[in-house]
Amino acid sequence: SQQGEEDPQALSIQEGENATMNCSYKTSINNLQWYRQNSGRGLVHLILIRSNEREKHSGRLRVTLDTSKKSSSLLITASRAADTASYFCATDWGTASKLTFGTGTRLQVTL
Amino acid sequence: AAGVIQSPRHLIKEKRETATLKCYPIPRHDTVYWYQQGPGQDPQFLISFYEKMQSDKGSIPDRFSAQQFSDYHSELNMSSLELGDSALYFCASSTGSRENTGELFFGEGSRLTVL
């Protein structure tokens, strides 16, 4: 598939700690996006980073993109219990009219 | 603000039956996507439409078909249902072009259970 693995598959941290998730992909991309999904619910867009960008911030979120390594990371700072969810990266590549999702990281934030 | 509306939210069918899922995109969004997500799996792309024409096709079984209508709503038709079709089916919409996929807005999904 176009999308590689996300790691870790699961992450458990305490409130206030930072959470870092990594995503790898296989071919050149137009942009990479991160989504959040609460159990059994729809996916919610968090942030989009274009292939010519290296870092982007949005509130407590920081995304980096390294196109030479075909990888991206999502950092959530000062995590909260409400951040508990699955996080997916997704790539837009070539002329495809779609996003290809990674395997996701399940984040558990405990009090 | 208006979101993507999917119906029905839950659907139970027997093997070999037919199911139809409906999706109403956000107004003025011109692209619709369908994804299938099995338990504990990542969303798998099925098919997309841009301006009512099929835009891209993924791992959609031949038993499935979809179309986008003149009012931009879309329907996913699934026939000869199999147990393995049990999944969450998401519709998403965007204002992306054929060449560039921007932010997708997802509906809450339709949960299909095949018995």
How would you sum up this structure, described in words?
The complex is a heterodimer of chains A (111) and B (115). In chain A, 0% of the residues lie in helices and 58% in strands. Chain A has strands at residues 3-7, 10-14, 19-25, 31-37, 43-50, 55-58, 61-66, 71-76, 85-92, 100-101, 105-110. Chain A contains no helices and eleven strands. The model of chain A has no long low-confidence stretch (mean pLDDT 93). By secondary structure, chain A is mainly beta. With 115 residues, chain B is an all-beta fold. Helices cover 0% and strands 50% of the residues of chain B.
Order of helices and strands of chain B: EEEEEEEEEEE
Element string of chain A (H = helix, E = strand): EEEEEEEEEEE
Indicate the mean pLDDT of chain A.
93
What structural category arises from helix and sheet content of chain B? Answer: mainly beta
Round the mean pLDDT of chain B to the nearest integer and report it.
94
Helix tally of chain A? 0
Chain pair sharing the greatest interface = A-B, 25 and 30 residues
| Percentage of β-strand residues of chain A | over 45%
Global morphology of chain B? globular
Low-confidence stretches of chain B: none
Rg over alpha carbons of chain B: 13 Å
State the major sheet of chain B.
7 strands, mixed
Largest sheet of chain A: 6 strands, mixed
What is the C-alpha radius of gyration of chain A, as a whole number of Å?
13 Å
Distance between the termini of chain B: 37 Å
Using the alpha-carbon principal axes, give the shape of chain A: globular
Helix content of chain B: under 10%
Low-confidence stretches of chain A: none
Counting DSSP H or I runs of 4 or more residues, the number of helices of chain B is: 0
